[in-house]
Design a protein that fits this description.
single chain, 293 residues, alpha/beta, Arc Repressor Mutant, subunit A, D-Maltodextrin-Binding Protein, domain 2, 3 domains, two-stranded antiparallel sheet, 25% strand
Length: 293
């Protein structure tokens, strides 16, 4: 029978690279760990690892068990955390993943009233630019995902919370400042400043440049919204951001919004959760406050 300890040791050996290191993490002796592996292989009737010198390489059966461990163990660990929180009379931490990088300022407006309404709940935000939101939501690394690009898959649900327009941001002295809209060809000599994400995930490429068969002269990446807008204000390039965010900065920086194309580029922000968490009071409360913000 495959037990939790079997999945844990396979995961840790894969992470640490050796039985010795895995044994330390699992608080086992190396001999006890080796005995557990040998007993598992006898029960399964197939080896889990093969040795290549001092290195261990997973067999096909071992790779399957590793994939199983990466699916099952995070869910068990999540359940244990919840049980400990219930036992202590706490509701725990709401873990939020951000795939909408300029939405951080909006999120702050949601978190403040939420914390006031739910004093037993803490909030943690993950905002990494290579962040795999769907995988993290499926894997119980986060509880809620903020994204403009939902993927409606079994087990997940996405609720729209607000609409916005994606606009071009230019410096006040840029030739396009004051224009009603910009066409793709207008930016052929410009430097486009974006967040460091894949081009395939940038709306200005998918909905503006690519349909017209155009591209900017150069693309630069910057992680921080403030620095990005300072670069735009100083004439170092242009950017594409939500209109509501540009309007906030326009009062204190020399930047201006310009519509992307005659019709504009419009998007929605969604909050993604797991279907199994439906009805969780403090999670549903966050979604409702977000829709009102």
């Amino acid at each position: 029978m495959i037990e939790r300890i079997h999945l844990s040791l396979i995961r840790e050996v894969d992470r640490r690279g050796s039985l010795t290191a895995a044994a330390d993490v699992l608080c086992l002796t190396q001999s006890a760990l080796s005995h557990t592996v040998k007993k598992l292989e006898q029960q399964l009737g197939t080896p889990v690892w093969t040795r290549e010198g001092r290195a261990l390489r997973l067999t096909q059966a071992g790779r399957y068990l590793l994939a199983l461990a990466e699916r099952v163990l995070p869910q068990l660990e999540h359940a244990e955390r919840l049980m400990h929180e219930y036992a202590r009379g706490e509701r725990g931490t709401l873990r939020i993943g951000m795939e909408c990088h300029p939405c951080y300022q909006w999120l702050l407006k949601v978190v403040d009233p939420y914390l006031a309404a739910w004093p037993e709940v803490d909030v943690d935000v993950k905002q990494r630019f290579q962040f795999g939101g769907l995988k993290a939501l499926h894997g119980y690394e986060i509880d809620l995902l903020v994204t403009p690009d939902p993927l409606f898959k079994p087990g997940l649900r996405f609720v729209p919370v607000f609409d916005y327009e994606q606009v071009l941001v230019v410096g006040s002295s840029h030739p396009l400042a004051g224009r009603s809209h910009a066409e793709p060809a207008d930016l052929s000599d410009d430097v486009l400043i974006t967040y460091p994400v894949d081009v395939e995930r940038l709306d200005i490429y998918n909905q503006f440049f690519l349909p017209a068969g155009c591209a900017p002269r150069q693309r630069k990446t910057i992680e921080t919204t403030d620095i990005m807008l300072q670069m735009v204000a100083s004439g170092r390039g242009v950017a594409a951001l939500p209109r509501w965010l540009v309007d906030e900065y326009a009062g204190r920086m020399a930047v201006a919004p310009v519509r992307l194309g005659h019709e504009g580029v419009f998007k929605q922000i969604f909050l993604g959760t797991r279907e199994v968490d439906a009805g969780t009071a403090y999670l549903e409360a966050f979604v409702e406050i977000a829709r009102q913000a």
